[in-house]
Amino acid sequence: MGVPVNRATTGCELSGNPDAAAAGAPGTSKAMKSAFGRRSWLRPEPVLILLGLVGMAVVLPHHISGDGHSRYRELVELFDHGRLSNDSYSMVGPLFAWPFWAAGELAGSRQDWLAQFNLVLFALTLAVIYGLLRDRMDRALLWRFLLLLTAGSMVAAHVTDFYGEMFTAACVAVGVLVALVRSRAVTGWVLVVIGAVNTPASFVGLGLLSAERTISRRRLRYFGVGLAGVALIMGEAWLRRGGPFVTGHGGPTALPRTLLPYSGMAGFSYPFPLGVLAILLSFSKGLVFFVPGLLLPVRRRLAVLHDRDRVDLFRAYLLWLLFLAGLVVVYASWWAWYGGVYWGPRFFLIAVFPASLALAVAVTYRHAGPLADLATLALLGLSLWVGATSSVLHVVQPPFCADPVLERLCLHVPEISPLWYPLVDPPRLGAGEAAYLAYLAAVLAVLAAPVLRRLPGKLQPWLAATRPYRSRAAWRL
């Protein structure tokens, strides 16, 4: 695990009291009580999380479009006509939205109710994560993690429609935590498998999770997780489309040619190395820009902040990354690796969980150097900007990028990226959108405060070293 964890030091570290940490055991019990006790509810983060969820529900427009409409039609076929659709998208996630369908039937607005499904699912995800970890990790670190998921990630763009990525990401993220907290129960792995079946392309990521658990625990039974996922994916394909390998994801047979050399081809026609680079670094879809927390180190910092005997958070971080890596491997060669006309890296929503955890750790960790703290502030600001552009500054692309010939060209130009195009052509904001931006500014202030408080003391030696150069008398012609 890297740095060995001393129980007494860990307790004091959690309390944020460096003097107690230096002293050792005295005061440790009080520190742990403060870190895990009820007083953490007095923190601003829980209020900001609730405000963020209310803002997503009230300020952001909810609708059903694109692939979300395809999933809606699957439910129409099943509940209105009594037959299974042979559509290419899994029915696992939509079936879990049945209560929203039923409520919409009573209210006479099925689509309006189903458009709220992903937001409610995300809110439940936050609640379950809090319930699992509240007595197993520092509350300050936990609240910052949950707040970053809410306001400092690309989640907002995924809770306003009926697309399937939120269901997969939520099931896998929560399932991994449940599996680590309750290692003898199968509930966590059932959730992981359900999430993976909802996105058949995630079978590689599921296999990586299964292999990691098998090797690290030296238990062959974990291979059953991957096998169960693959069997259910093939079983659904067989039941709905007539064959275990009939995915229905062949894509269009003819695509427009552009200036790009690999345009005009469908299927797995994109060169794998170029696909990986595009998924990581393209300005309109690149994970480096949309989930910048992935760039931060985690293992050694987390070993200082957190007692792994309560729950192995780094293992959860690693398993989330492995699932993400599996998605990158599959989609890198797909002709539509960018996810079509959609804001940001659509297929890789699971990345917000490891990225938010890494950024929360960086904000909480007090022993980094001044350059590391400045990098944390920069990535924190970028993450909140992602939250802003994925919500009230939501711009999928400039109008001319809707032309199929120009669509792919628009993926690699910085000023046409949905992250930066709002600065080129600022959208008009109403009172609700302006209030949401003010909310995000408050979140940034709360999360940046710990770093800003400790930064001046770390910069003093640097300022002292530059004193001779700041004196006019020291300079000669």
Q: Could you explain the architecture of this structure?
A:
The structure is a single chain. With 477 residues, the protein is mainly α. Helix content is 60%, strand content 0%. The radius of gyration is 24 Å and the shape is globular. The model is unreliable at 1-38 (pLDDT under 50).
The overall average pLDDT, rounded, is 88
Decide which structural class fits the backbone. mainly alpha
Form type: globular
Query: If helices are DSSP runs of H or I spanning 4 or more residues, what is the number of helices?
Result: 23
Low-confidence stretches: 1-38
What's the gyration radius in Å?
24 Å
List keywords for this structure.
477 residues; mainly alpha
Short description:
The chain has 477 residues and is mostly helical.
What is the secondary structure topology, with strand pairs?
Layout: H1 7-15, H2 18-23, H3 28-36, H4 44-58, H5 66-81, H6 92-96, H7 98-107, H8 110-114, H9 117-133, H10 139-151, H11 165-181, H12 187-198, H13 203-217, H14 223-241, H15 272-281, H16 287-290, H17 299-305, H18 313-331, H19 352-364, H20 370-389, H21 404-407, H22 421-424, H23 431-465
